[in-house]
Write a structure and sequence with these properties.
Largest sheet: 4 strands, mixed
Number of helices: 2
Number of strands: 8
Distance between the termini: 21 Å
Strand content: 35-45%
Length: about 130
C-alpha cells in the first residue's frame, strides 16, 4: 500500500493549483471550473485542490503542512532560490535531525490559500 492522494481545501483553487504546477511539477488532470482541480505528478500522485464549502480559507491545525523531498541539498537550495525569485517568502534554510543523527536542510513557504509547504531532504537522501 502507498499513499497516492491528498485533498487540500482553499479559498483560491486557481492560485493554489497554479503554485503546485509551477513550482512542484504537477499537471492538470481534471477540473470543475474554479471549484476543483485535480493535479497529477510524474509519480502518479494525485493532488486535489478544492474550494471549501464556505469559500473561506481552510482552517488547518497549527503546524499542518505538506512536504516535498529532494535527493540533494543543492536541490533544496535551488528550490528556495526559485521561490524567493518568484516573490514568495520562504523561511531561511535550516538543518534539523530527522532521526538517525543525520541533519538535513529544510525550509517552509506559505502557498496561496495559506497552505504551509515544507521542502527538505530526508536522512541519507531518497536514492540511498
Amino acid at each position: 500500500m502507498r499513499l497516492q492522494h491528498l485533498n487540500l481545501a482553499t479559498s483560491d483553487v486557481t492560485a493554489l493549483a497554479a503554485f503546485f504546477e509551477r513550482f512542484f511539477g504537477f499537471a492538470p488532470y481534471a477540473s470543475r471550473g474554479e471549484a476543483l482541480v485535480v493535479l497529477r505528478n510524474k509519480e502518479d500522485f494525485i493532488l486535489t485542490v478544492m474550494r471549501g464549502r464556505t469559500g473561506e480559507p481552510a482552517d488547518y491545525p497549527a503546524n499542518f503542512h505538506i512536504g516535498f523531498y529532494y535527493d540533494e541539498a543543492a536541490d533544496v537550495e535551488a528550490k528556495h532560490a526559485e521561490l524567493k525569485a518568484a516573490g514568495l517568502d520562504p523561511s531561511r534554510i535550516a538543518s534539523m535531525d530527522r532521526g538517525g543523527g543525520v541533519r538535513v536542510p529544510h525550509f517552509y513557504v506559505t502557498a496561496p490559500g495559506n497552505v504551509l509547504v515544507e521542502v527538505c531532504t530526508p536522512p541519507g537522501g531518497l536514492s540511498s
